[in-house]
């Protein structure tokens, strides 16, 4: 009996062992098959993985690595699994084919430091009712075709103020900080849309606190951070990105709250209804935040305004600066675009928004600037919500997905002479920046496309055309066009490391 029992136990042990071996072998084979379909990537060091390869300009480092490892590249950044997309075809997979699976956000620690991911239209998940509410509010109140048309005179007025400032500088033969002047213009456009006030001025003796603050927001969110790679370090905030974002956002929140409270007080003291034509965005926000059935609270409003404020100023001004830098570095292109503007505008004295559609070469200059200098070189990080296949490679669930639009814009398989500034490449072609042409998506695409795109594609060409129509431009003494510094500083947005200074030379009397 004991012999039979022993044999039974032995057979049971063999059976269990066989099942275990079969299971582990099958799992190993399945894992091997899965491993073979993971995107390729550079060898990893213990613990840090590929962090040492990121560098101070990740978009450049990733572009260089992609030349070796392909347009769908896998990186291990400490504890973080990341995939970098670097070709139009791969971008199409992410931004269109698998847009729904990849529309979530990967929150970095700076964003978490102010809980921005819980309130921001840029970071909330598109399935969230609050995201849908904020997106609808932004579009209908600011970026719909009707609102864009209704605010045309405002943009014209603010751009004319920029031209007037340049005229004063021209009379003094002073070099102008193009970055700062264009930022003040973009700032006053957005602050008037939101609050009906100017928040910037062109006085060079008064440094732009708003520009420093908005740039600080973009840098703190965009900068590489060890806390993103090793979550157990987040409480240390070793690089200070969390503290910097808290400080900068609090400064802006105080400004927003002051305008909000002042408008409530103004409206409560008003004896008659406010003229509809005089209402601005903060009035719409107040309507949604009052009463027992309020849809928004002040915290949600502050974070929405932070999104709109940052995205509506820094990106537009940096694009104008890069365009002017490229034109000063390419005098023949500058001459060509100015000749087109002069031919169309003639002696009218002022560039109108309606004129832009008749300036194809100017539009090509703007597109070429977006191609070489996208404002957000890696867009905002996406997150895979399930395993997903991109161009034959498996991207596992919870992987951070970065679309390197900077690299896509310089992809030699998509562009001839990709590093040259050649606006002619866009003439006679329908390629646009509105999210349908995946070789040129500086605003993203799909449900995550930047809601401010309609405003940007009006503001940037108008500012640039006005500067080129009213003035000739030269570099300060000692600076030659061929040697113009084009170094980049990486953040959520891409800036010239050293701001562009140029001298406006008035070429006509209006």
From TrEMBL:
Its cofactor is heme. InterPro entries: Cyt_P450, Cyt_P450_CS, Cyt_P450_E_grp-I, Cyt_P450_sf. The keyword Hydrolase does not apply. Residues 1-26 form the signal peptide. GO terms for molecular function: heme binding; iron ion binding; monooxygenase activity; oxidoreductase activity, acting on paired donors, with incorporation or reduction of molecular oxygen. The keyword Signal applies. It comes from the Eukaryota. Heme binds at residue 450. SUPFAM superfamilies: Cytochrome P450 (SSF48264). Belongs to the cytochrome P450 family. This is Cytochrome P450. It comes from Thlaspi arvense (Field penny-cress).
């Amino acid at each position: 009996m004991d012999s039979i029992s022993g044999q039974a136990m032995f057979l049971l042990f063999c059976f269990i062992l066989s099942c275990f071996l079969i299971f582990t072998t099958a799992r190993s084979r399945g894992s091997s098959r899965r491993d073979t379909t993971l995107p390729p990537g550079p060898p990893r060091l213990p613990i840090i993985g590929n962090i040492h390869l990121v560098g101070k300009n990740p978009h450049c480092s990733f572009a260089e690595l992609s030349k070796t490892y392909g347009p769908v590249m896998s990186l291990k950044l400490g504890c973080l699994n990341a995939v970098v997309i670097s070709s139009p075809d791969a971008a199409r997979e992410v931004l269109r084919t698998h847009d729904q699976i990849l529309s979530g956000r990967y929150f970095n620690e700076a964003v978490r430091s102010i809980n921005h991911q819980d309130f921001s239209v840029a970071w909330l998940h598109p399935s969230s009712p609050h995201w849908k509410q904020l997106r609808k509010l932004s579009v209908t109140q600011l970026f719909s075709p009707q609102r864009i048309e209704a605010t045309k005179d405002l943009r014209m007025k603010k751009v004319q103020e920029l031209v007037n400032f340049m005229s004063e500088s021209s009379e003094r033969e002073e070099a102008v900080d193009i970055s700062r002047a264009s930022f003040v213009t973009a700032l006053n456009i957005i602050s008037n849309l939101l609050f009906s006030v100017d928040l910037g001025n062109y006085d060079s003796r008064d440094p732009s606190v708003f520009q420093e603050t908005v740039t600080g927001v973009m840098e703190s969110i965009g900068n590489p951070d060890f806390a993103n790679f090793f979550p157990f370090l987040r409480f240390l905030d070793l690089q200070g990105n969390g503290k910097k974002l808290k400080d900068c956002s609090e400064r802006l929140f105080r400004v927003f709250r002051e305008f909000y409270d002042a408008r409530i007080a103004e409206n409560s003291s008003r004896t008659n209804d406010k003229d509809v034509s005089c209402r601005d965005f903060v009035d719409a926000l107040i309507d949604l935040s009052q009463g027992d059935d309020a849809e928004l609270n002040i915290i949600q409003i502050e974070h929405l305004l932070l999104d709109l404020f940052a995205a509506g100023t820094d990106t537009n001004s940096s694009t104008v600066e890069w365009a002017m830098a490229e034109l000063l570095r390419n005098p023949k292109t500058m001459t060509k675009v100015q000749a087109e503007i002069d031919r169309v505008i003639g002696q009218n004295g002022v560039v109108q928004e309606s004129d832009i559609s008749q300036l194809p070469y100017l539009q090509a200059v703007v597109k070429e600037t977006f191609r070489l200098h996208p404002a957000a070189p890696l867009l905002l990080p996406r997150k895979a919500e399930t395993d997903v296949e991109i161009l034959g490679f498996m991207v596992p669930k919870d992987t951070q997905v970065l679309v390197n639009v900077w690299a896509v814009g310089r992809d030699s398989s998509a562009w001839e002479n990709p590093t040259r500034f050649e606006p002619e490449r866009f003439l006679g072609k329908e390629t646009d920046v509105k999210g349908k042409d995946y070789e040129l998506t500086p605003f993203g695409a799909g449900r995550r496309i930047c809601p401010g795109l309609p405003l940007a594609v009006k503001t940037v060409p108008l500012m640039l055309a006005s500067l080129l129509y009213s003035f000739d431009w030269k570099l300060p003494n000692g600076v030659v066009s061929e040697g113009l510094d084009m170094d980049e500083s990486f953040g959520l947005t891409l800036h010239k490391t050293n701001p562009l200074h140029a001298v406006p030379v008035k070429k006509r009397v209006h």
